[in-house]
Write a structure and sequence with these properties.
Layout (H helix, E strand, L loop, with lengths): L4 E8 L4 H12 L4 E7 L4 E6 L2 H11 L4 E4 L3 H34 L1 H4 L5 H28 L6 H14 L3 H32 L7 E5 L2 E5 L9 E4 L9 E5 L2 E4 L1 H4 L4 E4 L4 E2 L4 E2 L4 E5 L7 H11 L6 H31 L5 H14 L3 H20 L2 E3 L2 H8 L1 E7 L10 E7 L5 H12 L5 H12 L9 E7 L3 E6 L2 E6 L1 H6 L12 E7 L2 E9 L6 H10 L4 E5 L4 H11 L3 E3 L4 H15 L4 E6 L5 H6 L2 E5 L5 H6 L2 E3 L5 H36 L5 H19 L1 H4 L4
Length: about 700
């Protein structure tokens, strides 16, 4: 069985969105290719195939001029941009010369129609036409040689040569000239957007100062190995994930989180690649290779997002494939049928109307601006520390009507402190705390850690050799043997399961009951605080049209009710085991399936089954967490609930931009198809409408990249 590989490549010499769609379509029909996505907005090719080289050979066959190379980085990308700038200046120069020649023709047009100068008109017109449209003519010939007839270059050549045939010389040259001007302006807009997106990815460090026996050595992050030591100077980016072994500084994590809040860093603290050392030099021991670092994972995720297309993108690509042939067929019918059926109808009149339709038939306004709008939204989100794994999830987020939150660490801080120790049956508070801490000594659970910290703060200690037989009881607590006594620490469900007599069941905060040799010893009340922006997050979600807010928690019902009341949530479910969360979430999905999408917000590790089941799984506080990045559809790099509200707002805004472009393109093209058929539109107006629509749509699409959603 062949191994399927997944790779991403940079694409060069691809200046046509329709060509990108054609390459994608042909690749998807190529044997051995499981998936292929050509992202015209970012000039990348995403391939998943058993034989990558065979797939790349297919690209060369489909579009011989298109060049495929490994993902550009560093100076290569700069060289590519320099080449693009040089080509642009050359094209502008040629168009200026063609424009001057065309202006001369327009100025002397009346004289050139008179003898003996009539013969001079054609050399002037042809010179201007060839200068302006040489690249269009070459592109059309290449397309025809491959047996294809609905390329925008072919249609433009047919329209302009047809205009010459009916002696509409000025319009033929003018349409070609302004078509090229429009193309250049369109390329400018797309290139500007691409540079903005690349700017988002500028957090990628491109050098590392490696400490060696011979001193400092500058190298690339990819060449540094785990365990080696690097120096990060003030003002420089941290090159790789690692642990600080020397130095105290302030580190800016905004390239990863979108939040410009410096973090105090000391020896023993973790620093992440892509963050910026703002103060003093740091010596860091590398803990991950660069390809596994936080910044590499983030950049990979952002650049790969185009591979998950929204249904709207897929529809537009399919629509464009059939739209142009249909308009061409209508144009052919208009050129031929009326002169044959209507008395006194002239072929030249109806041919001219058909040529107007050919000019307006290019779907570029749609096939360029819509992917660019989605990618702009994804890029803008990543700048704010919100990683959206594809445009399909932007659509899903924009339709979210129900948001289900985990409680601990999502709506609350998850930093527990022991508030009160209540004893029973003759045990002292120190005894209770010490026995509970012994059972929780090796626990990773925040509640267990808080109990251990509370014991230490009172100066109490534990002889670890006296602790044995530690067993976790899923969803209920833990038990162990300490100093010969069987001790269990857990929730109310644990007491009822073991039939332990106790007084109170309901508490307004998190409670840990302690049982010693099947005798109730008392309880420990543990406090947790709401996150500062939790209430703001709820308010903003409601203002963005989210109609139902639910909380799931394993905590007791009273503590859950207190949080739900403080945040004005619609529902909460408490005392849930992990499997209960999945069951309740399935129930919520069933109840709301007719009322929009359902999102779940959790930590991406403990809640993985629910995240996977949600229409949109959102992992919060994922900075440095590989598991969270892998599990969720949307990753919030910080632990702020308000980021969820921002993600929904951003998705809705991006979706509005996409539909504005669809409405603009369809309405303008529909109007001009009608005007062209009834003879009320000229070729000049058609080309202005076509290119103008494309430019307006592109400029509108870039709003998704630029605008803030605070």
């Amino acid at each position: 069985m062949e191994t399927v590989q997944e790779k991403r490549f940079r694409v060069q010499n691809l200046d046509c969105a329709a060509c990108a769609a054609k390459i994608e379509r042909e690749l998807q029909n190529t044997e051995g290719v499981e998936a292929a996505v050509v992202d015209f907005a970012n000039l990348t090719l995403h391939l998943r195939a058993a034989d990558i080289s065979k797939a790349l050979a297919a690209v060369a066959r489909i579009e011989p001029d298109v060049k495929i190379e490994s993902t550009l980085q560093g100076s290569k990308a700069d060289d590519h941009e320099s080449t693009e700038a040089g080509n642009f200046r050359k094209q502008v120069g040629i168009i200026v010369i063609a424009g001057i020649i065309f202006a001369i023709h327009l100025f002397f047009e009346d004289q050139l129609h008179q003898r003996p100068w009539a013969w001079v008109e054609y050399p002037i017109v042809i010179a201007a036409y060839l200068l302006a449209g040489w690249s269009v003519l070459i592109g059309a010939l290449r397309t025809l040689r491959r047996g294809q007839f609905f390329d925008e270059n072919v249609l433009m050549v047919i329209a302009t040569t047809g205009a010459m045939a009916i002696h509409a010389l000025s319009e033929a040259v003018g349409v070609m000239l302004f078509f090229k001007v429009g193309e250049l302006l369109q390329d400018m807009a797309v290139s500007k957007s691409r540079r903005s997106v690349r700017g988002l990815l500028a957090a990628r460090p491109n050098r590392a100062l490696l400490k060696t026996e011979g001193g400092l050595k500058e190298t690339t992050p990819e060449k540094v190995k785990v365990g080696e030591i690097i120096l990060v100077k003030p003002g420089e980016k941290v090159a790789l994930d690692g642990t600080v072994i020397e130095g105290v500084s302030q580190v800016d994590t905004s390239p990863l989180t979108g939040e410009p809040v410096p973090v105090q860093t000391r020896p023993g603290d973790t620093v992440l690649a892509g963050s910026i050392n703002a103060a003093s030099a740091l010596t860091v021991r590398v803990t991950k290779p660069f390809e596994a670092s936080s910044i590499a994972r983030v950049l990979e995720l952002v650049e790969s997002a185009a591979a998950r297309k929204a249904a709207t993108e897929k529809f537009i690509t399919t629509f464009a494939r059939y739209y142009t042939p249909v308009v061409v067929a209508i144009a052919a019918a208009i050129a031929l049928v009326p002169p044959l059926l209507i008395n006194d109808a002239q072929f030249s009149t109806w041919i001219y109307r058909a040529l107007v339709l050919l000019v307006i038939s290019c779907p570029c306004a749609l096939v360029v601006s819509i992917p660019l709008g989605y990618f702009g939204g994804i890029g803008r989100a990543s700048r704010s520390g919100i990683l959206i794994k594809g445009s399909m999830f932007i659509d899903a987020l924009s339709k979210v009507k129900t948001v289900v939150f985990d409680k601990t660490g999502t709506l609350t801080r998850g930093v527990f402190t022991v508030d009160r120790v209540v004893t029973d049956n003759g045990f002292s508070s120190d005894q209770l705390l010490q026995m509970a801490a012994a059972v929780e000594l090796h626990s990773d659970h925040p509640i267990g850690k808080s109990i251990v910290e509370a014991m230490k703060s009172k100066g109490l200690t534990i002889d670890e050799s006296l602790v044995s037989d530690h067993v976790a009881i899923p969803g209920k607590g833990v038990k162990a043997v300490f100093d010969g006594k069987s001790i269990a620490v857990g929730n109310d469900a644990l007491l009822h399961e073991r039939q332990i007599d106790h007084g109170q069941c309901d508490f307004d905060s998190t409670v840990a009951h302690v049982v010693v040799d099947d005798q109730y010893a008392g309880y420990i009340l543990i406090g947790d605080q709401l996150k500062p922006d939790a209430k703001l997050a709820v308010e903003r979600l409601r203002s963005d049209g989210v109609s139902k807010l639910v909380m799931l928690t394993g905590d007791n019902a009273c503590a859950a009710a207190s949080v739900a009341k403080a945040l004005n949530l619609d529902q909460f479910y408490a005392e849930l085991l992990p499997e209960d969360k999945v069951r309740i979430f399935e129930q919520i999905l069933a109840e709301t399936k007719e009322d929009g999408k359902v999102a779940f917000v959790g930590d991406g590790i403990n809640d993985a089954p629910v995240l996977a089941r949600a229409d949109v799984g959102v992992a919060m506080g994922a900075l440095g967490s590989d598991a969270a990045i892998e599990t969720a559809d949307v990753v919030l790099m910080t632990d702020a609930p308000a980021k969820m509200a921002e993600a929904v707002s951003l998705a809705k805004h991006t979706r509005r931009i996409v539909w504005q472009n669809i409405a603009l393109a369809f309405s303008v093209k529909g109007v001009f198809i009608f005007l062209g058929v009834v003879g009320m539109a000229t070729m000049w107006e058609a080309v202005f409408a076509d290119m103008g629509t494309a430019l307006l749509a592109l400029l509108n699409a870039t709003r998704a990249l630029r605008e803030s959603y605070d």
